Amino acid sequence: MKWSEICVHTTNEAIEPISNILHENGASGVVIEDPLDLVKERENEFGEIYDLDTSEYPEEGVYVKAYLPVNSFLGETVEEIKQAINNLMIYDIDLGRNNITLSEVKEEEWATAWKKYYKPVKISKKITITPTWEDYPPVASDELIIELDPGMAFGTGTHPTTVLSIQALEQYIKQDDMIMDVGCGSGVLSIASVLLGAQKVYAYDLDEIAVKSTKLNAKLNKLGQQIETKQNNLLDHVSKQADIIVSNILAEIIVRFIHDAWNNLKEDGLFITSGIIQAKKQMVKDQLQENGFTILEINEMEDWVSIVAKKPAQK
Length: 315
Prior knowledge:
Order of helices and strands: EHEHEHEHEEEHEHEHEEHHEHEE
Helix content: 25-40%
Oligomer: single chain
Radius of gyration: 19 Å
């Protein structure tokens, strides 16, 4: 079979919604080429090793690449992708150059080329994420290994928003906590939560592919019994009480369910939010405070922000 590589030159802010559009239109994998990957500050701190070709990266913005089968519907599919991406501007998402190109890729090249981007990465003091095909022996006695199959368009869990989320979970999770992961994607935050001591995680995502991906990765990490995954729109009709709710999605989505997050948290429970660009930080912070949350800390990595908020105990 012949494959066509579609490349979208866009911004960090638009990576997740564009990735979602691509896999909804039949992409079986997404590659992110971000020049910041070449100079990440956390390389020295956590010992990451990258062997990447700088010539393949844009000077500004990012490339989001995906692979589509060459068939009679390819032209229509590409037009639908372009229209869906343009529609993101309605939500004030900066698309940057928004330049879309197509190129043909041979079957044998497609089958292996994207794997070169995925290597084991230590993203916090304890947690290392590795793709399933890499043989990675722990280098520390307290190191926690998450194996991911990134073939379903959710990446390898090394994006700054995911790193910020996991670092917050590592700091705040207590033994036997109950966690809710809203917008679970690949399930990496759910898996990290259990490894860090959570007794149970309820993972929710509206996307059926995300639900399947989370179930697959939970099983790969032998945590299927502790992670209960369900297709659901945010926290609609959820009545459970959590110690921590974590959500790594767009700021515009986070503000939609802050009130529900309050209702689904125990007293002194925490709401860890990520996926927030700098321009939307104040909006999310204001909405959290207006709904009664106390801001514990705000953490930043590159252009991304994570906010940890607390539901104070009633006096």
